[in-house]
Design a protein that fits this description.
Elements: H1 21-25, E1 34-40, E2 43-51, E3 64-65, E4 70-71, E5 92-95, E6 101-104, H2 106-112, E7 119-127, E8 136-144, H3 149-162, E9 164-172, E10 175-184, E11 187-193, H4 220-232, H5 245-260, H6 281-299, H7 305-324
Parallel strand pairs: 1-7
Antiparallel strand pairs: 1-2, 2-8, 3-4, 5-6, 7-9, 8-11, 9-10, 10-11
Helix pairs in contact: 4-6
Amino acid sequence: MARRARTKPKHDEEAPGSESPRRSASVGAARGIWSGSVSFGLLQIPVTLIPAEQRADELHFRLLDKRDLSPVRYQRVSTATGEPVEWKDIVKGYELDDDSFVVIERDDLAKANVKATQTIDIQDFVPRDQIDAAFFETPYFMVPQARSSKAYVLLRDALAARDAVAIATFVLRTREHLVAVMPAGDALMLEVLRFGHQLKDVAEIPLPLPGASSATEPSERERAMAERLIDGMMADWDPHKYKDRYYRDVMKIIDEKAKTGKTTEHHAPKAGAVAHDVVDLLTLLEKSVAKSSRAANDARPGPKKAAAKAPAARARKSAKKRRAA
C-alpha cells in the first residue's frame, strides 16, 4: 500500500507548481474571471469571461519528505547568508547587464498600469486567416449578460459572415492585454494575443529560403508524392480523437500504487533511430504513400458474413421449394 503522511500539512506557502489536485478541481468550470462590456462602435455588450481551458485534469504533485511523506514548504532564502527572508523584507528588482539591480516598488508599477475601464475596446477588424497561430496564447469564452443576448448574437454573426476577427485591448487584473474576439460555433471566444515584440522575427531563425540552393529545392515528383501522402492522410479535425496517453497512464499508475504499492508498465517502448540525414527523399515518400494506402484499405469495413452467405441460403431455399412441389 502507498504510505500516507502521518502529519497534517500546515497551510503554508508551497513550492511553485505544487498545487494539489483537490484545489485545482475546486475551481468552477463556469466561474467568470472578468465582467465588463465589449465596445462595438457605440454599442456596449455586457459579457463575462469564462476560461476555455480545462485545468482540473492537469497533473499536480506535492513535494514530500520521503521519510514521513510530510509536505515540504517553500522557503525564501538569501543567496548571500543562506538565511530565510521574511516577506516584509522582500522587494522586486530588475537585473541589469552589469549584475546590478534596480529596485521597483509597488508605486512604481502602479504608474505603468493602464487604468481598468471594464471595457473590451475593439480597435480593428482583420481577416481571420491573417493572424498567425503563434500569436494565440490563452482562450476564454465570452458569455452574454442579462438582456445583451441580441447584441451578442449580432456581433457573433457579423464576424462569422465576414470571416473576420475583432482586435481589441482590455485590462485583466493589472495589465493591458491585446486580444482577438472571434466566433466559435454558437459562442464568441476571446483569445489573449502575444504582442509583436514577444515573438522572434522569423528572419532570425536559420531556415532554408526558396531558391537559395538547388540542394534544398524538392523536385516536382517529390512535391507531387508529398501532396499525395497528405491527401491519403487527410481527415476532419476532431480534438477528441487525440488522447493524452501520458496523463491516462500516470493516473493508472497512481491508482495502482495507492492500492498495491506497486506499478506496472503501461505502454510498450518504441524502438527507432533518429534520421540525421534524409538523402533519398523520393524513396521514403513512395514507401510512406504505400504504407498509408495499406492502412486505409485495412480500415475499410469488409463485406459482412451474412451478406456472403445470402446466395447460398437463397439456393437452399429454392431447392427446398422444388422438392416440395
